[in-house]
Amino acid sequence: EDKVVQSPLSLVVHEGDTVTLNCSYEVTNFRSLLWYKQEKKAPTFLFMLTSSGIEKKSGRLSSILDKKELFSILNITATQTGDSAIYLCAVEFTGGGNKLTFGTGTQLKVEL
Amino acid sequence: GAVVSQHPSRVICKSGTSVKIECRSLDFQATTMFWYRQFPKKSLMLMATSNEGSKATYEQGVEKDKFLINHASLTLSTLTVTSAHPEDSSFYICSAAPELAVYNEQFFGPGTRLTVL
Description:
The complex is a heterodimer of chains A (112) and B (117).
Chain A: E1 3-7, E2 10-14, E3 19-26, E4 30-38, E5 44-49, E6 56-58, E7 61-66, E8 71-76, E9 85-93, E10 100-102, E11 106-111
Parallel strand pairs in A: 2-11
Antiparallel strand pairs in A: 1-3, 3-8, 4-5, 4-9, 6-7, 7-8, 9-10, 9-11
Chain B: E1 4-7, E2 10-13, E3 19-25, E4 30-38, E5 44-51, E6 57-58, E7 67-73, E8 76-81, E9 90-98, E10 107-108, E11 112-116
Parallel strand pairs in B: 2-11
Antiparallel strand pairs in B: 1-3, 3-8, 4-5, 4-9, 5-6, 7-8, 9-10, 9-11
């Protein structure tokens, strides 16, 4: 059975801290791994990763994939209160017709 | 671009009634739309994959007769919760995959919060 597990489930940090969110997966015929940020409503797309070792970066956020060890990390540097959200990791497998299997999510709260 | 809307955004209904939720891709055509359910502080659980012009594919444990899905056009999919009960109360989110997507670019709607009294 395909499985995507995120850790930690939740964390609270202070503004300016750096956080690392983890996503591990067990998926047959892996195709891609995606990160989303969900605030109050719809998840918004952050990154899509398909190749190992290539860091994707967008401002203070970055992510990398390790296809050998079957995990990805999402880093957020110099966190701000606006980074408070649920961060979702999802994995797509080939032959799944674009279907995504979502992880448990990590709830991040950034305090002043 | 790539906007997905859902209607209504919030609905409260009595137990035993049916509720229809619409998911529309506003500026692109989507051959495939997905319906998810999300409980408070939990992740998205895929309920079904909706394909235009064909029957939806339901995930294991999701009742087809309870959650009716119709994908009538390339821009509209509907989810009808039939004979709703309080345990059906949840946040329902749809996503749409563009017809000509290069990657698996799913765009999410804003969600519909269903409360069944």
